[in-house]
Amino acid sequence: MDEEPLWYVAYGSNLSAERFRCYLAGGRPRGGARRQAGCRDPRPARAERVITVPGGIYFAHDSQTWGGGMAFYDPDLPGRAAARAYLLTRRQFCDVMSQEMHRAVGTDHDLSEAMARGRQRIGPGRYETVLRVGECAGRPMLTFTSPEPAAPTAPTAPYLAMLGTGLREAHGWSAERAASYLAGRPGARGAWAPRDIAGLLRPGTE
Question: Residues with Cβ < 8 Å from 138, sequence gap 6 or more?
Fold first, then answer.
């Protein structure tokens, strides 16, 4: 398999480096109910970048790890989505995607269609549509999301706490800014007030 590195663009719980390490090396994230198997290659990302990408995130479906809605990326939503890019091998990228779908790691997907056309449906799962969202330092930036928008579902407190922690860690945002961003996303909007999410992000309130 071509092991030229690519950027995996994380916009959900993997904004948190601690949480993403569970996908690479195995382990159960703080607040999560499921242990990740880890990648065949458990080495850390070669580099990281703090970025935004056109579009936005929304919460939908029901997470087996966190309960409640999960974050999905929709390039057609207005605005820009806060993200964190990790430089991985293609094999690591494929293993992360497999774990998102609760599949065994070990399948090396051909990503040529995503590279060439910007979109590729790998399988029927909720995180098996790969999008090319740009380029950074001469390397392609890829993410995965739902094949089509789904009905909004409210996320749980532990999941929002993980996302908010990742936003603060990666982007240097205040608790209030991270909370306002998350509270405005479809699924969270109307179900969570910014002040309540901000409360999850302050020491001693998780």
Answer: none
Query: Splitting the chain (206 residues) into consecutive groups of 10 residues, what average pLDDT does each group show?
Result: 85 94 91 84 98 98 92 97 98 94 91 97 93 97 95 96 96 98 98 98 66
- Residues 203, 206: Cα–Cα separation, whole Å: 7
For CA atoms 114, 54, 157, 204, the dihedral sign is positive
Q: DSSP secondary-structure letter at 40?
A: S
The amino acid at residue 73 is Y
Which runs of E-coded beta strand occur in the chain?
6-10, 48-54, 56-60, 70-74, 80-88, 119-121, 129-136, 139-145
pLDDT at 116: 97
Residue 61 makes CB contacts below 8 A (sequence gap 6+) with: 69, 70, 72, 126, 146, 150, 153
What digits encode the pLDDT tens for the residues 113-129?
Answer: 999 999 999 999 899 99
Q: Which single residue is written with the structure tokens 């995965």?
A: 144
Contact 27, 99 (CB under 8 A): no
Do 154 and 68 meet the contact criterion of CB atoms below 8 Å apart? yes
Domain residue ranges in the chain? 6-151+168-173
| Burial tier of 137 (Cβ tally within 10 Å: 0-12, 13-18, 19+) | exposed
CA geometry: angle 141, 143, 146, nearest 5 deg: 155
Which of 42, 6, 40 lies closest to 22, judged by CA? 42
Q: What pLDDT was estimated at residue 65?
A: 83
